[in-house]
Design goal:
264 residues; alpha+beta; seven-stranded antiparallel beta sheet; 7 strands; 35% helix; elongated; HotDog_dom_sf; Thioesterase domain-containing protein; Thioestr_dom
Length: 264
């Protein structure tokens, strides 16, 4: 028997011994092997180690599951205010896209509905029922007037989920519709308009508890003073496109609507 076949046979026998009795090893029985003088580990020691490892994992997973299932804080509560501050800190410090946009002089940063009073905001869907860290905890807009383009940064909370951990498609459609309208209405001299058509393609899940960016551009060639075409992509912080949408907006002839201000 050549040396290669012998080594293979030795490994096979050794594995069979180890499977039947983990304390046994072929080298204790092979010629030329030295006696193993190390004391076998106690089975109770291994049990304590396993209990510690799996017990710690169970506690960590339990806490994570408890946080996932817990009801999100109500808007205006102390817990909600803490969460809002954390979101603002993450927006200022942890998002490279914010720093890039701020360094670009073509973009002007603002909040949403800054020209509305608190009373007026309470009657709007995204600044009223969807307000707070459980909904749209943070919304910021970067407007590029030269390119007629908006880049919005939004934090989606756990209170607008459809399936657990995933943002409801209707909530996404609402945010996308508003961003499409932001660029479309900027095209209208009347500074007002309504959605006439909205098409949405969901490409990948959007997870709650995360920041996303919306990149919305006006089709300047097709748009007029009374009808505007726009497109939008919702991306995660790695740049992956999760949702794509197009919209058509018009200026109503008979319906009187409020004129928007210079900020969003």
């Amino acid at each position: 028997m050549n040396s290669t076949r012998f080594l293979r046979l030795q490994r096979l026998i050794n594995s069979n011994f180890a499977f039947r009795n983990p304390r046994l090893s072929l080298r204790n029985y092979s010629t030329g092997a030295q006696t193993n003088t190390s004391a076998p580990s106690s089975p109770w020691t291994r049990r304590f180690i396993y209990v510690g490892i799996f017990g710690g994992l169970g506690i960590a997973l339990g806490k994570q599951l408890e946080q996932m299932l817990a009801a999100p804080p109500a808007p205006g509560s102390p817990e909600d205010e803490k969460m809002i501050k954390k979101l603002e800190w993450a927006y200022e410090v942890g998002l490279p896209i914010v720093h890039r946009l701020r360094e670009n002089p073509d973009y002007i940063e603002s909040g949403v509905y800054e020209y509305f009073s608190d009373e007026q905001k309470s009657h709007r869907l995204t600044s009223g029922p969807l307000a707070g860290s459980r909904g749209l905890g943070l919304q910021k807009v970067f407007w590029n007037d030269r390119e007629m383009k908006v880049v919005s940064v939004v934090a989606f909370g756990t209170g607008i989920e459809g399936w657990p951990t995933m943002v409801h498609g209707g909530a996404l459609g609402t945010v996308i519709d508003e961003n499409l309208g932001r660029v479309a209405i900027r095209r209208f001299p009347a500074r007002t308009g309504v959605t006439a058509n909205l098409n949405i393609n969901y490409r990948a899940p959007v997870y709650s508890g995360n920041f996303y960016s919306l990149h919305t551009t006006l089709d300047q060639e097709r748009s007029t003073d009374h009808k505007a075409y726009a497109k939008c992509q919702l991306r995660d912080m790695t740049g992956r496109v999760c949702v794509e949408a197009t919209g058509i907006f018009v200026v109503p002839k008979k319906l009187q609507l409020r004129t928007i201000g210079e900020t969003f």
